[in-house]
Amino acid sequence: MRRGLVLVVSAPSGAGKTTLCQKLLAADPEISFSVSYTTRKPRPREKNGVDYFFVDQDTFEKMIEEGAFLEWAKVYDHYYGTAKAQVEETISQGRDILLDIDVQGAFQVREKLGRDAVLVFILPPSLTELERRLRSRGTEDEETIKRRLSFARQEIARAKEFDYLVCNQELARAFDEFWSILKAERQRSFRRQDLLKRFS
Ligand code: 5GP
């Protein structure tokens, strides 16, 4: 059995990360989604245990104390964290897991997991296009949009530290590049020692 990998995906809000992640999960049966914990309130249509585990601040803080998180961060006034158990169990069974998390969290995962983690940053074609996409959603007020854009600039400044970059100009092409990264990473020789065992 090969060793599973942790595919960490970060992007500024509006880059199309959620769409790319959903397409990957639908297309590839060997990767599953890591459901994060958060203290933010569910949005309409979000389901507890599917999109997130929605918890209160006390519960979240207790989990931090117990060391239950692989990583956690405060993003836009709320706490978000990845449970260690789910990730460890998945990769030890030779399956891959997708983490849709922010930049701070991505670097914590790399620090903890080393080569088991593969960091992908999704870029919008430009900041102007990102602003256009955020506005066309029509879900955020002006102040939130301004805040997200300024946060996007800070996140993009750290994109060069990721292992891979994908520019989401055109969805089909971006998805192809994204999936190719996963397929190639699976075949890294240190993950495929199982193939060599047959010859020793
Ligand atoms: P949203 O509230 O829009 O679902 O997510 C806001 C941001 O939090 C997104 O950038 C998302 O990737 C990030 N996020 C979601 N779950 C986690 C997590 O478990 N850890 C970290 N560090 N960030 C997360």
Automatic annotation (TrEMBL):
Origin species: Thermodesulfatator atlanticus
Compartments reported by the entry: Cytoplasm
Gene Ontology cellular-component annotations: cytosol
EC number: 2.7.4.8
GO molecular function, one term: GMP kinase activity
Family of the protein in this entry: Belongs to the guanylate kinase family.
InterPro entries: GK/Ca_channel_bsu (IPR008145), Guanylate_kin-like_dom (IPR008144), Guanylate_kinase (IPR017665), Guanylate_kinase_CS (IPR020590), P-loop_NTPase (IPR027417)
Protein name: Guanylate kinase
Reactions accelerated catalytically: GMP + ATP = GDP + ADP
UniProt function note: Essential for recycling GMP and indirectly, cGMP.
